[in-house]
Specification:
about 60% strand, mainly beta, globular
Length: about 675
């Protein structure tokens, strides 16, 4: 109860860097084509066009399809998918979207696609922010000491602490039940160990933190089939979560449209170290009919065992906005899951799902799986699924995987269901994320189907190509795919792989072939125009970019050799290192008698008042900013003189000019 000042250890630092975005355009594309042995041809193209600057990102996506069949002939259609302008506010961790979006939702509500506006909390804008409660441990040191923190036997943190009380905040390394030890070693070498049990749940919000989503507009209908199909009646919804305490998070949701309104409240509670309970209740009104919905769930986990159960029931005529344009909410949804880690013996789990919609028969499924690693290169997995309402509807799967050298793996699998038994043998070498070749070969044989597949792919900096052939039940088809991105920034076009996150264009001001590094790792060299597209970068995080000055010409000046870049999401930023040619030369100056000018003589480049330089040994002076025709005014101990000479720009090392005779300056 005493108000003592405590030393805070490992306190979270939420320094929010300011994001940057430069004007530019980006086109992500994915082209896919097929042709079978019946002469049917299919072509499809997916594209995403983005325009971005410091104000935000305008994005639109579309899908085009072309078919050619001997029976029906040519056919083509194009459908727009989503068009959205988004602007993010990093300090408040919120994003404003205008256009097509998906409404916010909770575990007991349903989301809808709509067109309108949305204001939503976006924790991704502050990646270092820990949103759920993490345990804090308290102790006291009688002498200056060292504090070490161990989580489940692994050392996580160490720091010095002065005498007095201290508070140690843990890192979010455990989700579920855990055991912590705080070891305090004082200046005399004496140790004191404090044991703590804790429970961490990512479903909770830490105390004082809020999460929300507000939207209004018109529900999207026939998505993927029609470009501009929206409901005629407006709709609005709001979702809110707030951390009242580290052990309690409350939540609420409300939505309304023409003829329907629904709303509810719930909460997530940590029950000591015994797990987390979630509960919610909601009510609705639809065309004079009312209904309600109740949800109750529980989950607990530690390093070896996890268990969760959840049940949602609706009563009466419970409806939401999504039910106006699709099926109503289910009358009953029950889920149960249990998993166990057995160490060297592997892991196993079981699940149960039951669901019932109004006017339809219920469906119940039970499943189980087992996974075992057989050394460092082999693994075995077994799973089974059973329809509890149709005993003949069951499936069993057995798989074996073997990892070979050079990233090559072989897998064999067998599956049995009511349609028969199917055996599959697969060998593959995935394409490396950094680029290169990859391939896959697959054969399968079963009671009702047989076939084979061969595929090869290549990933370059400019995109990815994939081609293959597949045979199934005496029908053969060939396919090919090309994906990548085109970027327009700094008055240049760049070809790249598909870009889903942030990126940067590095400019060396026209100097070509300059090595560029990302986080001290070589990432590429600038092109003939002095630019390099660098992907991907982490949005709203500091990314270190640098150039190697030892690879630059000697006659240039560099403003900086590294930069910390914080791009905004799905946008690019232009990074200039400020490389300027200086047109320099080392000039050998002699007096009228042919002797080197005295050391310390001052030289001025006429027309450039700030260019004064001192003559060094052997009459050599280094000057920058030279032009095609130059005049030097020399102030030597023996008097003043003038030198005239011409200069020609070279791409080699700094040239040496002279010796030049200094003629006495005429009055």
């Amino acid at each position: 109860l005493l108000d003592q000042a405590a030393t805070m250890l490992n306190a979270p630092v939420n320094a929010v860097p300011q994001a940057q975005a430069s004007p530019g355009l980006l086109l992500n594309y994915d082209l896919y084509g097929t042709r079978d042995d019946d002469g049917q041809l299919g072509l499809s193209a997916f594209g995403e066009l983005r325009a971005f600057n410091a104000w935000g990102v305008l994005s639109t996506t579309a899908l085009s399809r072309v078919t050619d069949s001997p029976a029906t002939g040519w056919g083509a259609d194009t459908v727009r998918l989503d068009t959205t302008f988004s602007r993010s506010f990093v300090d408040s961790a919120t994003t404003l979207r205008i256009g097509d979006a998906v409404s916010g939702s909770l575990g007991w509500t349903r989301a809808t696609r709509f067109g309108g506006f949305q204001l939503q909390r976006n924790f991704a804008l502050q990646p270092d922010l820990v949103t759920f409660p993490v345990p804090a441990f308290y102790g006291q040191a009688s002498l200056p000491s060292t504090v070490d923190l161990y989580i489940n036997g692994l050392k996580q943190y160490s720091s010095q602490v002065p005498a007095g009380p201290f508070q140690l905040n843990t890192l979010p390394v455990v989700n579920g039940n855990g055991q912590a030890q705080v070891v305090v070693t004082d200046a005399m070498g004496r140790q004191n160990t404090l044991d703590f049990a804790f429970y961490t749940a990512s479903q909770l919000l830490r105390a004082g933190l809020s999460d929300y989503s507000l939207e209004a507009g018109f529900v999207r209908t026939d998505y993927g089939m029609r470009s501009f199909s929206y409901a005629g009646d407006p709709a609005a919804s709001g979702t809110w979560r707030h951390g009242v305490a580290d052990w309690l998070t409350v939540e609420g949701h409300a939505e309304a449209s023409a003829g329907v309104a629904s709303g509810g409240a719930g909460g997530v509670i940590e029950v000591g170290h015994a797990g987390v309970v979630n509960a919610a209740i909601a009510a609705s009104s639809h065309d004079g009919s009312s209904g309600s919905q109740v949800e109750l769930g529980y989950n607990w986990r530690n390093q070896r065992f996890n268990f969760s159960v959840d049940s949602t029931r609706s009563f009466g005529s419970y409806r939401d906005v999504a039910s106006l344009y699709g099926p109503p909410p289910p009358k009953r949804t029950d889920r149960a899951l249990a998993g166990l880690m057995l160490g060297r013996l592997g892991s196993l789990g079981m699940s149960y799902v039951e669901q019932e919609y109004p006017g339809q028969a219920r469906s119940r499924f039970a499943s189980a799986y087992y996974f075992k690693s057989l050394g460092h290169r082999c693994s075995l997995n077994l799973s089974a699924n059973q329809n509890l309402d149709d005993h003949g509807d069951r499936s069993v799967f057995l798989g074996f995987n073997l990892a070979l050298g050079n990233n090559v793996s072989i897998s064999a699998a067998a599956q049995h269901d009511r349609n028969g038994t199917l055996a599959t043998l697969d060998a593959s070498r995935p394409i490396d994320p950094d680029g290169g070749y990859g391939w896959r070969a697959r054969v399968q044989d079963g009671d009702d189907t047989r076939g084979a597949q061969a595929e090869i792919g290549y990933r370059a900096e400019q995109g990815q190509l994939l081609a293959g052939v597949e045979n199934r039940d005496e029908s053969t088809r060939a396919y090919a795919d090309a994906s990548g991105a085109l970027v327009f920034m700094d008055h240049q076009f760049f070809a790249a792989r598909r870009i889903d996150d942030a990126f940067a264009v590095v400019s060396t001001d026209g100097v070509a072939d300059v090595p560029v590094m990302l986080e001290n790792r070589p990432i590429g060299r600038t092109n003939a125009g002095g630019d390099l597209l660098v992907t991907p970068l982490n949005a709203y995080q500091r990314n270190k970019l640098a150039i190697d000055p030892m690879q630059l010409p000697a006659d240039v000046r560099i403003d900086r050799v590294d930069a910390e870049v914080t791009p905004s999401d799905r946008a690019g930023t232009l990074v200039r290192f400020g490389i300027h040619p200086v047109h320099a030369a080392s000039i050998i100056l002699h007096d009228s008698g042919g002797r080197p000018l005295a050391v310390g003589s001052m030289v001025d480049l006429r027309g450039r008042p700030a260019s004064a330089a001192a003559v060094g040994y052997d009459g050599i002076v280094y000057l920058e900013g030279l032009g095609a025709h130059n005049v030097l005014d020399v102030h030597a101990p023996g008097g003043r003189c003038t030198i005239r000479f011409d200069y020609r720009v070279t791409t080699q090392a700094v040239p040496v000019i002279g010796p030049l005779a200094c003629r006495e300056k005429q009055p």
